[in-house]
């Protein structure tokens, strides 16, 4: 696992893209809907409470940006009413969503994941438990739904160095103080890349 912080009451975990693959596969063993739910959190940065919102009518391809975007009605980190934003979706997730929607014969207004927030959180715990059983790695028992969003944010902010304003827009953070905790320490891979790029002069 990329990193674990258990200094506070709540253990925080950061998963690598390959570890997200393991978790999504484990969830998929209990149904494609579960895998889609985990992709929406770990690949698109949704909160567990936002997973039940999007449907086909919310998904669109932006010719201008050459990207998939989808509407989310999510948490307003400044408080007050829920806030609408456009979230970003990787191409491979959009392909999975289209296949899933066609196979299930869904209408454009049918939510891809029509379950409660507690169910989404439980699915993550159950998938993490399956990975723990396969790998016998105790840290997997601490993985929560928010760790998927945490991993997504840190990967793009720290590893891919996506600018903060873009991440705030697609992730639904209203100000810098809300996103600052996701600016975690870089992984060893990122440190190596940064130092090699900087040359060897002392």
TrEMBL record:
Transmembrane segments: none annotated. Residues 10-196 form the Tyr recombinase domain. One of its GO terms (molecular function) is DNA binding. It comes from the Archaea. The keyword Chaperone does not apply. GO terms for biological process: DNA integration; DNA recombination. InterPro entries: DNA_brk_join_enz, Integrase-like_cat_sf, Integrase_catalytic. The keyword ATP-binding does not apply. Keywords: DNA recombination. This is Phage integrase family protein. It comes from Halogeometricum rufum.
């Amino acid at each position: 696992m990329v990193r674990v912080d258990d200094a506070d009451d709540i253990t925080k975990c950061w998963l690598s893209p390959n570890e997200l693959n393991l978790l999504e596969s484990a969830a998929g063993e209990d149904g494609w809907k579960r895998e889609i739910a985990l992709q929406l959190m770990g690949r698109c940065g949704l909160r567990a409470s936002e997973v039940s919102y999007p449907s086909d009518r919310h998904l669109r391809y932006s010719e201008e940006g050459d990207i998939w975007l989808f509407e989310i009605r999510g948490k307003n980190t400044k408080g007050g009413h829920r806030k609408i934003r456009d979230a970003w979706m990787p191409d491979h997730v959009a392909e999975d969503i289209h296949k899933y929607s066609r196979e299930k014969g869904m209408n454009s207004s049918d939510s891809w994941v029509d379950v409660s927030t507690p169910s989404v959180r439980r699915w993550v715990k159950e998938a993490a438990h399956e990975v723990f059983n396969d790998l016998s790695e105790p840290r997997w028992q601490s993985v929560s739904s928010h760790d998927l969003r945490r991993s997504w944010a840190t990967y793009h902010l720290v590893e891919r160095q996506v600018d903060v304003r873009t991440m705030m827009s697609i992730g639904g953070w209203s100000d810098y103080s809300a996103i600052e905790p996701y600016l975690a320490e870089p992984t060893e891979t990122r440190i190596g890349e940064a130092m090699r790029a900087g040359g060897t002069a002392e």
